[in-house]
Amino acid sequence: MRSHSGTAGGLALILTASLCAGQVRAEDSFFAPLPVVLSASRLPQTLHDSPAAVTVFDADFIAATGYRDLSRLMRLVPGFQVGQERGNAHWVTYHGLGMDYPLQMQVLIDGRSFPAPSFNSSAERISLQDIERIEVVRGSNSAAFGSNAFLGIVNIRTRHSADSTGTSLRLSRGAPGILDVSARHAVESAPLSLRISAQHEADEGFAGLHDGRRTNLLSVRGDLQLDERNELNLNAVLAEGRRDAGYERSFFNSAGMRESQHANRTLHLRWRHVAAAEEEWLVSAYWNRQRVRDEWRLDSRINPPLPLAPGVAFGADVGNTAVTDQHSLEVEHRWRLDPATRVLWGAEWRHVEQASPFYFHAAKAHQRSEQRLFANLEWRSAPAWLWNFGGMVEKLGGDAARFAPRVFLNWQAAPDMTWRLGHSRAWRQPGLFERNADVRIVSDTGTLLQQRQLPNPALRPQRIDAFELGFLGILPDQRSTLDVRLFHERIDDLIVRQPGPLITDLPRTGDAGYLAFLETLRSTRWENYAGEVRLSGLEYQLRTSPWPGTEFILSHSMIDRRAADDRIRGNTAPYSGSLSWLQRVGPWQSMLSVLRMGPIDAGFSYVPGFSYTVPAYTTVDWSAARSFRLEHGTLSLRLSAINLLGRHQELANRPLQAQAEYRNRPANQAGRQVHVTLQAEF
């Protein structure tokens, strides 16, 4: 971290001097108050008071991108490292270290935990029209939201049903095979408001890959104002989808081409009680079920890597079929203790159950109860000094209770300039699959071909200690805002996938090639990395509006990675960045984004002894729209495209990439997608 200390000191002097030189012009809309956020401490706070770096996307910005996937939006957040193995599979991380499935970030939808490891791995795909804003907390936030918030939070907040009354129809058509249709209708008759949204999405993914998808979504939101102090809110979601998966030339059809089926059911009920002007109770309960049906067959006759030993032939049913249930009950209470102090406390009980005959060969299913108790205290010790103390005690299953604390001090050196200094400790508990995976491939005749993954009941939670120096300021004369985060993150007991013994009933005699092939069938299991992982770096976002109707947004992250294991160090890209240009001229609007990602050892699955680095790449996204005013509503026409610079690899499928035919070229590449969207609101 020594290399950043001079940078921090010089940055402090330059920014303080420049910001104190001017005064905010209240009549300028660019300098409207910064948004109030809830995701950092659960207390409503301005960005200047927040104990974390927070990036906010509102509905207008989301629409301006023209994106169909929220995962792609995360590429515009400083420090985020996002990739696609295929058109329907996203890998979303903050500072990398995502391994097979990124599990280090908490995704919330209206405060409800989203159970999928990434935004698009289940049937539930949020209707973009229903989103009011997205708050992205950059950095550990287990003190407020538990172990899944190990490296941050993405909190998606949907519109209140009373804020979107009327009807909206939307149609998108494009290539390859893009066809999206959605409809929304909202009505209000005090004290009740109701919104119903229906959506169908389909595409053929990226050229050259078997990665199409078809999803159907029906969601209902109702808001009932019982009286001036009490409100009930109900969200219900019914979603189903089909996704193409697999690759044509995988060994033994190990990644067979197939169609998987996904279903999602959710009920979420919230009661909000305003006890006084600055006192509120919130009680939330939800149930969620995810069902995946994904099955295919291994066959020794399909694309064998070499001649097998005499008499060796097999076929076996394999799959990723699983059912996951979540139940949660949470209570939260916040109030103002005195003019300088606000307090929040809460508790949550959650039960998670996962059933999968393939993932859990012996037990078939595993479950866990989770209890959390959290609190946050905000204390303004002086007009310019604000303290945030937070912490969570968390107990999962039979593990010992663990405490995740956070302490931050914000110095508001000027009305529109804040320095932030703090430390947090966070834990990420092993998932049910990581600790209990027992994956065995058994042939039709009962022969154990491979025990692919072994359980590890002794797997410990990983821990992060994060130190942060942050800055947030408005530069009035330059019509700009600047958000800077200097960080040092030390991770212990990182959960990684490691090779284990060879467990198979296949014959272990034959020529050297066959014996070498057997070595690739070694089992793996999730283990704690014995060394430390240290991530130190600088990330920033500069937003500037040099003239009315124009805005430039520059996001950049640089990370110094320290780990004895090259594979772990390579799982974080040394840099990433984006530059976006938004332009509004009368009824016209456009957005152009240039995205850059550094080299990264990121990919799916594991091959013993094989490592692969995805090369650095640059790509361009663009969207332009024209709006029309109608007598009783509005009409808009938008043209959008992603990956305009052509095909490139973002995330590797390691077993496929390890095959000889792909040693010198990418096995899977992201490609261009273009679509036109027509939307009417009335």
Describe the structure in your own words.
By secondary structure, the protein is mainly beta. The protein has a single domain (2-681), classed as Beta Barrel (Maltoporin, Chain A). The protein has a 22-stranded antiparallel beta barrel. A five-stranded mixed beta sheet has the order 3-8-9-6-7. A two-stranded antiparallel sheet has the order 1-2. The protein is globular, with a radius of gyration of 25 Å. Residues 1-32 have low confidence and may be disordered.
Question: What's the arrangement of secondary structure elements?
Answer:
Elements: H1 2-20, E1 36-37, E2 45-46, E3 53-58, H2 59-65, H3 70-73, E4 80-86, E5 89-94, E6 106-109, E7 112-113, E8 131-138, H4 142-145, E9 152-158, E10 166-175, E11 178-189, E12 192-203, E13 213-227, E14 230-245, E15 258-276, E16 279-293, E17 295-299, E18 315-319, E19 322-338, E20 341-355, E21 365-382, E22 385-396, E23 402-414, E24 417-428, H5 432-436, E25 439-442, E26 448-453, E27 462-475, E28 480-492, E29 495-499, H6 512-519, E30 524-528, E31 533-544, E32 550-562, H7 566-569, E33 575-585, E34 588-597, E35 603-604, E36 617-630, E37 633-642, E38 652-653, H8 654-657, E39 673-681
Parallel strand pairs: 6-9, 35-38
Antiparallel strand pairs: 1-2, 3-8, 4-5, 6-7, 8-9, 10-11, 10-39, 11-12, 12-13, 13-14, 14-15, 15-16, 16-19, 17-18, 19-20, 20-21, 21-22, 22-23, 23-24, 24-27, 25-26, 27-28, 28-31, 29-30, 31-32, 32-33, 33-34, 34-36, 36-37, 37-39
